[in-house]
Structure formats: C-alpha cells, structure tokens
Amino acid sequence: GQQLNQSPQSMFIQEGEDVSMNCTSSSIFNTWLWYKQDPGEGPVLLIALYKAGELTSNGRLTAQFGITRKDSFLNISASIPSDVGIYFCAGQRSLTQGGSEKLVFGKGTKLTVNP
Amino acid sequence: GAGVSQTPSNKVTEKGKYVELRCDPISGHTALYWYRQSLGQGPEFLIYFQGTGAADDSGLPNDRFFAVRPEGSVSTLKIQRTERGDSAVYLCASSRGMRNEQFFGPGTRLTVL
Description:
The structure holds 2 protein chains of 2 kinds.
Chain A: E1 5-7, E2 10-14, E3 19-24, E4 31-37, E5 44-49, E6 55-58, E7 61-65, E8 71-76, E9 85-92, E10 104-105, E11 109-114
Parallel strand pairs in A: 2-11
Antiparallel strand pairs in A: 1-3, 3-8, 4-5, 4-9, 6-7, 7-8, 9-10, 9-11
Chain B: E1 5-7, E2 10-13, E3 19-24, E4 31-37, E5 44-50, E6 53-56, E7 65-68, E8 75-79, E9 88-95, E10 103-104, E11 108-112
Parallel strand pairs in B: 2-11
Antiparallel strand pairs in B: 1-3, 3-8, 4-5, 4-9, 5-6, 7-8, 9-10, 9-11
C-alpha cells in the first residue's frame, strides 16, 4: 500500500541535542499528523496540522505543514532519554479530493538518545 | 476506560484457523478504524466505520478479511482461513470524526504458525 517518504530512517543523538525529521509525498494532503510509538504499544498522537504553512508546537516539539501540502517536518528540541521511540508522520486527504478519512503513514524514524 | 482498548493483546493461531479481534473505541467517538502494522513498517489502513456502516473498506487485502460494528461502538475484525502472511500487529483507532485526530489502541499481535 501507499506510504509516505519519511527520513531519516534512524537517528542516534546525544541527550540535549535537537532533532529534525521530515516527511514528503508526491500527492497533496490536507491534514498532517505526527505520532510516537513505543515498543509493544500503539501510536500516540503528538501534533496535528490542518493548514498549509501552519507551525504548531507541543512542549519541546514543533511541527510544520509544508506550503505545497506535500511535506511536513517535526523538530524536537533539547532531547531527553524518554524521547526514544519511533516517530511516524501520517497524512490524510479530504473526501473532496478523492480521499477518505483514512491515514497514510510513513515508515517511521527510529530515534535513539544516548544519555 | 479512557482510551481505545483491544482484545486479545496477543493471539497465536494455526494456519487455516479463524480469528476474531475486538476493538472498544473511546466513548462518544463515531469513527473507528482498523490498521495493520508489519515489522519495521508504518500502519497500513484496512477499513473504517462511520457509525455502523463501513465507509471505506478499500484496504482489506482480500475476502478472507471482514469487519463489523453492529451497534456503532465495539468493532470486530474477522479473519478466515488465516495464512502466515497475516501475522502482524492489528491496530484500532477511533476519532470524533471532525478533525480526524485518530487515537490508537495498543494493538493485537497476531501470529499465524
């Protein structure tokens, strides 16, 4: 099935460093969401974006909805050990654009934070 | 409960058997979604319900897969004649249906031997 292009696949960083990951698509989406998944658990919603150009923060997390509606990025500032996990982007097209309420996911970015 | 719950958390079955996976959405959420996640991949859409009806079942891989939501709350994903390739984590999510913020359950890990 279709998946978004998410990069990087994995990151190894030191505690306190900033992190950036992004997601691109060949198609337009009108909603972008970012999730975090820990082993053995379901994805947890971090940030939702609804408008092209929108920049939204949630604590140390900041995400942007690309102006072309074909990309999004997520930044994590001052990383801490509990940031470890897999981060997924997900896009959704509206019904009027031939989509549905389903989400299309990237393959994930695996983040490791060394204390 | 406050979140989406799924049962069982783990299911081991033999090839050819029938399985049912259950999802209990967040109270008041009208939309319910099923996804499948293979190792190292993101979740892939299977089917979603708005109320009792399946609004989009385009992700179901074949006719061995079926899902119901008879009263617009709990949903059951049914897989007939299971195959080894069906082994994956099956995730359920629900939303209020307005801004499509989908909240996921912990998943059911299905292993077909």
